[in-house]
User: Which sequence fits this backbone?
DNA sequence: CAAACTTATTAAACAACTTTAATAAGTAAT
DNA sequence: ATTACTTATTAAAGTTGTTTAATAAGTTTG
């Protein structure tokens, strides 16, 4: 080693991630608390935290009350140590939001949609934001299409982006770690994060849409993609003797309620999810009880999911933030 | 340290499990192959393998052909180093099968059903088998009810076992690690293992039954249990305007084919599974094409699962064996 | 308020892996 | 057969964690 630093740890990513997570989840922690909750030894917790304090990543906030002996020093995370960028690629426009580790907005804006144009306009945008905000360390991209491991597989009306590895493209052009996710999948992850549901929950998030319904589905805490990225295409569920779910939706209030009730009954019998979430703008709180009633005609009430009406855009954003935060937390900054 | 052994490793369970898995999957391996495929250093692979050879767990089978330099020594796993026991708790009888690490049968037998009686008769049986077969190191129990982490939550007509922690009971009474799983869940896991599907597959295994249908469902390689252990209760899926899947099944050949087609369409739209498997005794190979045809009326063919007719009892057994093998592989024998 | 106790932190010894260097056992060409 | 090369194995150092011991900083009690 050529430099004269005394503390030096190659920063085990699992431990770094654990400390950051605990510090952010609990607001603050002592070395002993970190050691206990992460199942690492006290000296290890101490070394990592000391390093983080030197870098300015962790900040001491004084001492705990004594519990009979020497008082423990307490630390918190600097939520502005790094920032993340969420970008919504939509039909009409491209929105972006820069956020800190607590999910607080730093800056936001929008541009004309990038979907009809070249992806290099996207990396240009990210490059400009990076210039202005050197703390930027992650990019989360939400797209209206099927995504697997950063590659877009299906994206109706934007053939140009089909089979395009957007994640690698952005990472190489910007030098920032990126994550790409489908809009409804991001929304369901965001709902789970915002509602603080337990990890490994099973949740269905339904969006009715003008161009037909779709759902984001998480089972045991993991996004379901399926064999041909067709999962969540609930438009095709044959809820009636003639006509599928999409068709039934078009036939007025009563048929719609019945169709949704049957869809819930179907998912309850197959997946038995903990939650079934609607876009509040489409299905308000007042509709939940009537819908539940219809579903209960098919499946015993105790096995039906809890219904919820939530704000889709907020959940979508929370999902992209949560995915970006995941990248921030496991970073092993040089 | 008081004994004079030269080699001594506290047997890191992850490494032990990895070496055993590779050795069994590939039939044999060299130290360099283990090091590469497990991402551990060569010296570590060597130390663990040497220890295993001393214990008789691994066996040297000579040297590889030279690839230009010194020849590498090749090792295989002794499939009879430890044995597992699978027990099927069924209505009419209790079957058991003792097997080795390759899944080969060592001994099998049956007794009157234990479900109407006390669980201690089960531990007595295990105790007797353990006496006769000292290599026994794991017990897998298949039960016709909903199970979560070893506890039976729902078990129709055997109230005595409801909310009973069968896993802990067996582990404490016999001193053997145990795993408890529902019959259809075990079957779907067994199918995945026998068909060598890739990990993280999504598969639905349908059983029609006399007392109504049920399914075992695996998503992304993990068993789906749901919020109230109701997942897979496809009897309740409202496939028609009046009447659910169970009712439609009762109305003759044509209605049955249509109902199954709709169920497949529903699961395809929701989960988009890779495989949809039938019990060969109920739905033969010849029925697969007509059923697929019906499903294709609702969902584009490329998004439908591959249909298969398989032997349910064999899959069930394979599932219990696979779960038991999991216990055997991660054991850190004293 | 000083001894006895509690709890937090730091330091030293230990453990188990990885990396690098040395040695062993081959092959191929002269 | 000897030299040059290749690959496997073993040995020695180096890393990064854990465990145990020592020290620091409190509280409580006679």
Assistant:
């Amino acid at each position: 080693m050529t430099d004269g630093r005394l503390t030096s740890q190659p920063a085990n990513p699992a431990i770094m991630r654990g400390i950051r997570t605990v510090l952010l989840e609990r607001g603050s922690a002592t070395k002993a608390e970190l050691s206990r909750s992460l199942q690492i030894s006290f000296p290890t917790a101490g070394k990592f935290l000391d390093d983080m304090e030197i870098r300015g990543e962790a900040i001491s906030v004084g001492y705990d009350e004594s519990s009979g002996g020497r008082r423990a020093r307490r630390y918190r995370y600097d939520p502005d140590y790094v920032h993340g960028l969420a970008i919504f690629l939509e039909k009409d426009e491209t929105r972006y939001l820069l956020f800190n580790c607590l999910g607080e907005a730093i800056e936001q804006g929008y541009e004309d949609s990038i979907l009809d144009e070249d992806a290099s306009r996207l990396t240009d945008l990210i490059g400009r934001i990076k210039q202005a905000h050197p703390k930027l360390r992650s990019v989360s991209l939400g797209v209206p299409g099927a995504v697997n491991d950063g590659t877009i597989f299906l994206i109706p009306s934007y053939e140009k982006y089909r089979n395009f590895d957007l994640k690698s493209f952005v990472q190489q052009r910007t030098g920032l770690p990126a994550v790409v996710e489908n809009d409804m999948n991001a929304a369901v992850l965001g709902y789970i994060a915002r509602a603080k549901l337990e990890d490994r929950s099973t949740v269905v998030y339904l969006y009715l849409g003008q161009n037909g319904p779709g759902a984001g589905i998480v089972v045991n805490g993991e996004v379901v993609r399926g064999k041909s990225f067709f999962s969540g295409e609930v438009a095709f569920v044959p809820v009636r003797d003639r006509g599928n779910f999409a068709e039934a939706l078009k036939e007025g209030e009563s048929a719609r309620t019945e169709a949704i009730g049957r869809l819930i009954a179907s998912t309850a019998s197959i997946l038995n999810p903990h939650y079934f979430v609607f876009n509040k703008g489409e299905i308000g709180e007042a509709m939940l009880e009537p819908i539940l009633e219809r579903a209960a005609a098919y499946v015993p009430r105790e096995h039906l999911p809890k219904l919820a009406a939530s704000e889709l855009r907020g959940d979508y954003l929370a999902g992209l933030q949560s995915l970006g935060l995941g990248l921030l937390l496991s970073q092993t900054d040089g």
